[in-house]
Amino acid sequence: MTGSTAPRRLVLASNNAGKLAELQALFAPLGVELVTQGSLGIPEAPEPHRTFVENALAKARHAAAASGLPALADDAGLCVAAFGGRPGVDTAHYCTQFGYPKSDANNVRALLEQMRDVEDRRAAMVSTLVAVRHADDPEPLVASGRVEGEITRAPVGDGGFGFDPVMFLPAFGCTFAQLPSDVKNANSHRGRAARAMLALMRERWWPDA
């Protein structure tokens, strides 16, 4: 795939507005336009796997097959040390196992309830990005990012989404939800994965970018 023929339009295998906004800003230097699969009438792919990379690859191949365009998928989650890395790939639906309707607020509520008596608050936010040129691409691009922190005892901050209000970052002395968006993008798990993915795309797909 060369710079002269490669389309600069990528289907994002997600309908999450927060992810779209973050990734669109991060991929702007490549001149890439991200479009959500939902805007193209593409349904969400099943995510039956137990690792971030397997789910991201399945989502990317699904979106590429349905759209005929290169696709980018992100699978991310919260990995809590005291819970053996869970909720992991079940992060988005974490609260439903405790009887709450799916929502960011309920996910935070359920996590804080489950960690009420847990002293080890260590956790990591993990993001895995997978990009494919087409549905049968034998050499998908894979990039990961990881940020370590601690789970607070109560939500702090109004920015971000997901578990951002309870993910405290010792290096900044605040939660993800308290960081300005540009600072968060530069230092988040998704930001780190995106920068690695940008480098791979420049090297292998679009060397003229």
UniProtKB/TrEMBL annotation:
<feature type="binding site">
    <location>
        <position position="75"/>
    </location>
    <ligand>
        <name>Mg(2+)</name>
    </ligand>
</feature>
<comment type="function">
    <text>Pyrophosphatase that catalyzes the hydrolysis of nucleoside triphosphates to their monophosphate derivatives, with a high preference for the non-canonical purine nucleotides XTP (xanthosine triphosphate), dITP (deoxyinosine triphosphate) and ITP. Seems to function as a house-cleaning enzyme that removes non-canonical purine nucleotides from the nucleotide pool, thus preventing their incorporation into DNA/RNA and avoiding chromosomal lesions.</text>
</comment>
<dbReference type="InterPro" id="IPR029001">
    <property type="entry name" value="ITPase-like_fam"/>
</dbReference>
<protein>
    <recommendedName>
        <fullName>dITP/XTP pyrophosphatase</fullName>
        <ecNumber>3.6.1.66</ecNumber>
    </recommendedName>
</protein>
<dbReference type="GO" id="GO:0017111">
    <property type="term" value="F:ribonucleoside triphosphate phosphatase activity"/>
</dbReference>
<dbReference type="GO" id="GO:0036222">
    <property type="term" value="F:XTP diphosphatase activity"/>
</dbReference>
<dbReference type="Pfam" id="PF01725">
    <property type="entry name" value="Ham1p_like"/>
</dbReference>
<keyword id="KW-0378">Hydrolase</keyword>
<dbReference type="GO" id="GO:0005829">
    <property type="term" value="C:cytosol"/>
</dbReference>
<dbReference type="GO" id="GO:0009117">
    <property type="term" value="P:nucleotide metabolic process"/>
</dbReference>
<feature type="active site" description="Proton acceptor">
    <location>
        <position position="75"/>
    </location>
</feature>
<keyword id="KW-0547">Nucleotide-binding</keyword>
<dbReference type="GO" id="GO:0036220">
    <property type="term" value="F:ITP diphosphatase activity"/>
</dbReference>
<comment type="subunit">
    <text>Homodimer.</text>
</comment>
<feature type="binding site">
    <location>
        <begin position="189"/>
        <end position="190"/>
    </location>
    <ligand>
        <name>substrate</name>
    </ligand>
</feature>
<dbReference type="GO" id="GO:0009146">
    <property type="term" value="P:purine nucleoside triphosphate catabolic process"/>
</dbReference>
<keyword id="KW-0479">Metal-binding</keyword>
<dbReference type="InterPro" id="IPR002637">
    <property type="entry name" value="RdgB/HAM1"/>
</dbReference>
<keyword id="KW-0460">Magnesium</keyword>
<feature type="binding site">
    <location>
        <position position="76"/>
    </location>
    <ligand>
        <name>substrate</name>
    </ligand>
</feature>
<dbReference type="InterPro" id="IPR020922">
    <property type="entry name" value="dITP/XTP_pyrophosphatase"/>
</dbReference>
<dbReference type="GO" id="GO:0046872">
    <property type="term" value="F:metal ion binding"/>
</dbReference>
<comment type="similarity">
    <text>Belongs to the HAM1 NTPase family.</text>
</comment>
<feature type="binding site">
    <location>
        <begin position="161"/>
        <end position="164"/>
    </location>
    <ligand>
        <name>substrate</name>
    </ligand>
</feature>
<dbReference type="GO" id="GO:0035870">
    <property type="term" value="F:dITP diphosphatase activity"/>
</dbReference>
<keyword id="KW-0546">Nucleotide metabolism</keyword>
<dbReference type="GO" id="GO:0000166">
    <property type="term" value="F:nucleotide binding"/>
</dbReference>
<feature type="binding site">
    <location>
        <position position="184"/>
    </location>
    <ligand>
        <name>substrate</name>
    </ligand>
</feature>
<feature type="binding site">
    <location>
        <begin position="14"/>
        <end position="19"/>
    </location>
    <ligand>
        <name>substrate</name>
    </ligand>
</feature>
